[in-house]
Specification:
The protein is an alpha+beta fold. The chain contains twelve helices and 32 strands.
């Protein structure tokens, strides 16, 4: 076979005789040669690469295992893999590329294979068939163990379409396959959290946004780094955590804590702050706005260095359409529609929120604007103050102890609150402390009858992890719904008496995100 390169002489991967053009093709790795007449040797310009000459998709361009020309339908078939993830493509016209709806599985599809072992396993455990049964199973485990996340793994001897793969909420691995190891399991677990493949054959792209919690670029990808053999868990199944891996796994500030959240009435947008970053939503259902997350600085320009990470609180005052950030003993103000600190700020809390006692001037715990009277309330430890008009100073008679002025509060609430929520849909105020809450219909009448109550069982449908306390609460003016956040999950109430809305709890990730997940 004259003209073959040495690598071809050592053995071929596939050979093809095309009856449509009477030419012979030999394939080796990602290259191939063509003979128009064998005695004349390899055609000029060969060997050349499979892709883009055969217009093959990811997984075929690095080589094929077999090729055949079918005389009965005059079509060409390429095959790749056999035991795991065996696939094939078909060409009716090579110049037009692979036929529509290809590649297809050689044998069972993934869904067909999983029917053989997933559903019997779920039946033995007492759960429904299909992915719905798997989802119910992991949710029950999550509730029992009071975790934020849960997934399960299927280790099977039965047919699979690839020796290891993952898709939330399950990992699948074939038992006894060469190469199966704890690090392969670690690699697949990375996929559960959205981490992307980084090896070159995966056709990864440095410019693509990874699917992990923070949506960080896939800059560990072997196709954009000089050392393709670098050790990384998502590249070579090693124990190494490479530069961008932590964000792909979801290790970052938004995963563990949202420092502040505020709805700006002047532009009808919501903002969440964590660490030195923030995100913005014009329509929360559609995810974060394009171009976010962003750094707090310089996008909120004019902030002193201490405000550029982990702000204490944010408050939008509807009486003056101004937004305020609090940090330690200082605050800044943004005029309506502005992301630039107003001239003359930051200012000390002392002297500018007139009448505050010294303990409030050192920093506040909580703040909210009350719809019914248009007053602003600030809480610190076991005291609170009220401003009917901030420029006039703290209202006469304040500060007051929480005890005795918000009648009916148990002692633990009087010592300080964790969170406060003004619901505009029912004009009631809620205070949260630890695992309990109270409700006020009217402050002068005190705590409503039957309160305090445990959060568990009284905000129906909340997962167990929420019942031990929440991290944050938000009443959205645009849709009149209430949101509770705990760790990486949240619940929504359209009507509290009806319980948590269908489909909740849901992941913050993918619904209020993506963060530089």
């Amino acid at each position: 076979m004259p003209g073959l390169p040495a690598s071809f002489e050592a053995g071929l991967d596939a050979a093809l005789m095309r009856k449509d053009n009477h030419k012979i093709y030999f394939f080796k790795g990602d290259q191939y040669v063509r003979y128009s007449n064998v005695s004349d040797g390899v055609d000029p310009g060969y060997p050349t690469t499979l892709s883009p000459n055969w217009d093959l998709d990811s997984g075929f361009e690095d080589g094929i295992d077999a090729a055949v020309y079918r005389g009965d339908n005059q079509k060409i078939y390429f095959f790749k893999n056999g035991r795991f993830n065996g696939r094939y493509v078909r060409f009716t016209d090579v110049d037009a590329g692979v036929d529509a709806d290809y590649p297809k599985p050689i044998g069972l599809s993934t869904s067909e294979a999983e029917l053989l072992w997933r559903d019997p396993a779920m039946a033995k455990l007492g759960y429904p068939a299909g992915d719905a049964g798997v989802q119910q199973y992991v949710e029950d485990i999550r509730t029992k163990l009071k975790t934020d996340w849960t997934y399960t793994a299927f280790i099977t001897r039965h047919p699979v379409t690839w020796f290891a793969y993952a898709g939330r909420p399950k990992v699948v691995m074939h038992f006894g396959t060469n190469g199966i190891s704890d690090m392969v399991y670690a690699h697949e677990t990375g996929h559960i959290f959205g981490a992307p493949d980084e090896y070159a054959a995966s056709n990864c792209s440095c410019a693509s946004e990874a699917g992990g919690f923070f949506r960080s670029p896939n800059k560990n990808c072997a196709n954009c780094t000089p050392d393709e053999n670098a050790l990384c868990v998502m590249r070579s199944n090693s124990k190494a955590i490479c530069a961008y891996t932590p964000k792909h796994f979801g290790w970052g500030p938004f995963l563990t804590k949202v420092d502040a959240a505020v709805w700006r009435g002047d532009n009808a947008r919501a903002y969440l702050f964590s660490g030195d970053e923030y995100i913005r939503y014009t329509d929360i259902a559609n995810g974060r706005d394009d171009g976010y997350p962003r750094k707090i600085s310089p996008n909120w320009s004019g902030l002193p260095s201490s405000f550029r990470t982990s702000i204490d609180a944010a408050l939008f005052r509807e009486d003056n359409n101004a937004l305020y950030f609090f940090k330690g003993n200082q605050y800044v103000r943004f005029s309506a529609g502005s992301t630039a600190v107003d001239s003359g700020y930051p200012k000390p809390i002392a002297g500018n929120w007139p009448g505050l006692p010294a303990s409030f001037e050192a920093g506040i715990d909580a703040a909210f604007w009350r719809e019914s009277n248009g007053a602003v309330y600030l809480f610190k430890g076991n005291q609170y103050v009220r401003f009917t008009k901030v420029s006039d100073g703290v209202d006469a008679g304040y500060p007051n102890p929480i005890a005795g002025n918000w009648p009916g509060l148990p002692a633990s609430f009087e010592a300080g609150i964790d969170a406060a929520l003004m619901r505009k849909d029912n004009h009631k105020i809620y205070f949260f402390k630890g695992t309990r809450y109270v409700r006020f219909s009217n402050v002068s009448d005190g705590v409503d009858a039957g309160y305090p109550n445990p959060i568990a069982g009284n905000w129906p449908g909340r997962p167990a992890s929420f019942e031990a306390g929440i991290d944050a609460a938000l009443m959205r003016k645009d849709n009149h719904k209430i949101y509770f956040f705990k760790g990486t999950r949240y619940v929504r109430f359209s009507n509290v008496s009806d319980g948590v809305d269908a489909g909740y709890p849901a992941w913050v990730d993918g619904n209020w995100m993506p963060f530089p997940r």
